[in-house]
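User: I'm designing a mutation panel for Recombinase family protein and want to avoid disrupting the core. Could you give me a predicted structure to guide residue selection? Please restate the sequence first so the numbering is unambiguous.

Assistant: Good idea. Sequence first, for numbering, then the predicted structure tokens:
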Amino acid sequence: MTPVKKVTKAAIYARISSDQTGEGLGVQRQLKDCRKLAAERGWTVAEEYVDNDTSAFRGKARPAYERMLADIESGSRDAVIAYHQDRLTRRPIEWEQFVELCDRAGVEQLVTVTSDIAFGNDNGMLIARITAAVAANESDRKSARIRRKIAENVELGLPNGGAQRPFGFEDDRMTVREAEAQIVRSLAERFLAGESVRSLAAWMNASDVPTTAGGTDWRTTTVRGILRSGRIAGLREHRGQVVGAAAWPAIISPEQRERILLTFASRQASGRRAPRRYLLSGLLKCGKCGHTLFSSSREDRRRYVCLSGPDHGGCGRLTVVAPPVEGLIADAVLLRLDTPQMADTLTGREQHDDKYQILVDESRAVEDKMNELTDMWTEGEISRADWSRARKTLEARLEAARRQIALLRGTDTLSGLVGRGSELAAAWDTLNLDRQAAIVRAVLDYATINAGTPGARTLDPSRVAPVWKL
């Protein structure tokens, strides 16, 4: 009789497919029973490997399982303990791979809380293979039932489950949680008014708004997901597409959500980043050469500078200190908000979604043509001269579309502000830089900065020549 080897480096493996609470209680129960079994057999456990909230049927990555396999192959594990065979795998082919690996590594003992499996015993392996096949079939049937349930929920506009409730709704995923709904409405209004997603995430963190998981660490991806979600507009989505009205109430209107999506699209089309330290980034031009001024700092002094060189193309002979010109432009914008011409200009622009979408689609189509044009030149199908002529035409079309998009976006940005310039001026310093820049961009196309008097210590207002959009 072959003596049984003493186990000194056993591996315990635990897994649960769905952890609804996120507390890992299922795997903790498995680990407790596996530890008890190891103690009863007098085995020394070298390491516990845990994959929580991970399916063994869908072929998803299981980091702990893969690490255990690597340790078995290296010879650093001499036995495996699991709660049940299906915790290791529900796929017959994966089971055979596991057995082959253990055989190569000389691991002869696999025990579960419910049974022992003898790798060298034909009957034991037959039962194990049948168990793996039954587990796979049950997983397949369970997946089919889940798919049918999801399809039924989609048809009825009902929600599916999930580990975390959606922000703005109670645990039933149907009832609006009003305190969070107010935050969602603020997010939507501030985003449409010009704030960036990064700014909104920072506001949520600074305000200690709790996430649905109980933390206060808001990421831009999470905030972006909330804003883009059809759920907050009372729309049922399936695989990223709106399929109909939802059974739960809306927090914002579908029209408002559509404007949010269009704003995302237009920001992506423009490729313009939100300003951080400079209010007028990209809005100032050199009066000497016409090139855009770049933000630049020297020690603690913020400036706008015409930069020369191949990457910038300016003359390099004009500089203006940032705070005075920013204050001058901001004051001019706020004064302009109170003019009758501003109210007249915005009249009739509030129903612009259809035109907005047409312009966004046009800008995307032009960008596709520009990419196609570049590919044609790369492949030698057209000459560089042909590429240059065609590109200039496309660039002009793209710039025209983007200008019109910017004009239409100004309607949302300036909503409720026209005629309130003096009131807004009193609160200007309380607005964050994103909001200030959005208001300025909605009104100002650009401003030319002309040369000043050498040695002057103050900004001469005559140096600044604004060109207004509105």
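For picking mutation sites, this is relevant: The radius of gyration is 32 Å. Residues 351-411 form one domain.
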